[in-house]
């Protein structure tokens, strides 16, 4: 063995002993990570000069750009062909459903439907639940097909049975295709956004989907229970809760379902109500323009000239104006 190899072995043995000593000493003396020196990471001037802020709607937490890019990207060999999205959004008291396409100048809305339109079709209460979401999706589907003159060719699923449904292409025109855009909504099983999706599917739109997120899908059996899904479409879950409250807590029932009681709705007749609403939507899906009332004519009253108004309009100090008004009043009294 040469001297170089001996020296190399001695160096390695020395390093191992030092490392072992540090480990043992650290355990015996009770050293912790917090006892070691902490050096704060300093960002250089170049970091801040090159820093680029994110998009405004990302900073506000309104848009998921990772999902949006994948929804609006279009093949270049399709040129200027629009790529439509079925957009569903929820507020506290309303549901918004739109058919939207992206352009370089911004998003273009082809058609829209709102839950606050449903009273025109007979549904005046419960405008934000699963059944109302189904009605809103159905209304949008029938409306956009009516606009494109495809409503006769694609009738959709005329009776909501709760089973999964996909429209079949006709001989002449292909079905209207759109992609589901849920935004920032959590896509849990039975979410209301999938109620709107089911309504649009039954209305005759072609939307790529899976039955795994519909209400009634079992994770264990990996099958959709059509009866449970049908129950949600016709408001059966609301009816069962109404029955439970009516029997157990009558006071809470009166406060929670006061509008239902006022409209004469009971748990037994909710299904018939939703069937009538579905039929009314199919009969006339066209949006009605709101009639604006003419502005009321206000009677002109004689304006009373005050000291402050006189001072402001004639650029005179209020104190001087008061003196002038007092002198004028005294002259009038003397003449009388």
UniProtKB/TrEMBL annotation:
GO biological process, one term: translation
This protein's GO CC annotations: cytosolic large ribosomal subunit
GO molecular function terms attached to this record: 5S rRNA binding; structural constituent of ribosome
Keywords: Cytoplasm, Membrane, Ribonucleoprotein, Ribosomal protein, Transmembrane, Transmembrane helix
InterPro entries given in the database record: Rbsml_uL18_euk_arch, Ribosomal_L18, Ribosomal_uL18_C_euk
Gene3D superfamilies cross-referenced by the UniProt entry: 3.30.420.100
Ranges that cross the membrane: 12-28
Family, similarity comment: Belongs to the universal ribosomal protein uL18 family.
Annotated protein name in UniProt: 60S ribosomal protein L5
């Amino acid at each position: 063995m040469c001297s170089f190899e001996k020296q190399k072995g001695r160096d390695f043995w020395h390093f191992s002993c030092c490392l072992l000593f540090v480990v043992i000493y650290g355990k015996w003396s009770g050293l912790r990570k917090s006892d070691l020196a902490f050096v704060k990471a300093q960002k250089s001037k170049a970091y801040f000069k090159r820093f680029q802020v994110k998009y405004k709607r990302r900073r506000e937490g309104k848009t998921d750009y990772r999902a949006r890019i994948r929804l609006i990207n279009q093949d270049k060999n399709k040129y200027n062909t629009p790529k439509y999205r079925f957009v569903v959004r929820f507020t506290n008291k309303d549901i918004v459903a739109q058919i939207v396409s992206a352009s370089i100048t911004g998003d273009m809305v082809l058609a829209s439907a709102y839950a606050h339109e449903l009273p025109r079709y007979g549904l005046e209460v419960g405008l934000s639940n699963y059944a109302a979401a189904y009605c809103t999706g159905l209304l949008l589907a029938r409306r956009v097909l009516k606009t494109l003159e495809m409503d006769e060719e694609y009738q959709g699923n005329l009776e909501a049975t709760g089973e999964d449904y996909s429209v079949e292409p006709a001989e002449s025109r292909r079905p209207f295709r759109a992609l589901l855009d849920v935004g920032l909504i959590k896509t849990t099983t039975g979410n209301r956004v999938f109620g709107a999706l089911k309504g649009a599917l039954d209305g005759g739109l072609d939307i790529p989907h899976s039955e795994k997120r519909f209400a009634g899908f079992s994770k264990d059996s990996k099958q959709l229970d059509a009866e449970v899904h049908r129950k949600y479409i016709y408001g059966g879950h609301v009816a069962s809760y109404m029955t439970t409250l009516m029997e157990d807590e009558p006071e809470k029932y009166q406060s929670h379902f006061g509008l239902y009681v006022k409209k004469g709705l009971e748990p037994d007749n909710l299904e018939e109500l939703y069937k009538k609403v579905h039929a009314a939507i199919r009969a006339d899906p066209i949006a009605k323009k709101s009639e604006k009332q003419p502005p009321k004519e206000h009677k002109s009253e004689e304006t009373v000239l005050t000291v402050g108004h006189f001072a402001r309009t004639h650029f005179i100090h209020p104190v001087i104006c008061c003196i002038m008004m007092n002198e004028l009043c005294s002259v009038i009294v003397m003449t009388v």
